[in-house]
């Protein structure tokens, strides 16, 4: 069986990190898949999906490291070409990747105790982000 659903979230940009674990689990539950996999995909080229312990100090640590990796002030040909000054956001998103696949067991996403699924919006402005979730299994 294959089941897919999309949802949207509002973000602040600049590597805003938002916990979407509950939304993903709700879609898995709706799918009625007991065992399989779930793929979570950020629609767009300046956002990423990953896992993290979503607690305030670690969220700030992550943002700090992303700023060191690809500073929002970095020179980029993309920003020069398009004038949108968001070349850094494309670099961050490309290195982190747009999606994540996790196992499903007994109708639940398999995650560690302190592991949440998050979307990271790297763009340089607030956005409405579409997240597509596809569940595959039996």
Structure description:
This protein has 138 residues and is α+β, with helices and mostly antiparallel strands. The protein is 30% helix and 39% strand. The strands form two sheets. The chain has a five-stranded antiparallel sheet, with helices on one face. A three-stranded antiparallel sheet has the order 2-7-4, with helices on both faces. A hairpin with a 2-residue loop joins strand 5 and strand 6. The longest helix is centred in the middle third of the chain and has 14 residues. It starts with a strand and ends with a strand.
List the helices and strands and how they pair.
Elements: E1 2-11, E2 16-19, H1 21-31, E3 36-43, E4 47-52, H2 56-69, H3 77-82, H4 87-96, E5 99-105, E6 108-109, E7 116-121, E8 127-137
Antiparallel strand pairs: 1-8, 2-7, 3-5, 3-8, 4-7, 5-6
Radius of gyration: 16 Å
Note poorly predicted spans: none
CATH class category: Mainly Beta
What is the terminal-to-terminal distance? Answer: 6 Å
Secondary structural class: alpha+beta
Per DSSP, what share of the residues sits in E-state strands of 2 or more residues? Answer: 35-45%
**Could you describe the largest sheet, including whether it forms a barrel?**
5 strands, antiparallel
SS element count, helices: 4
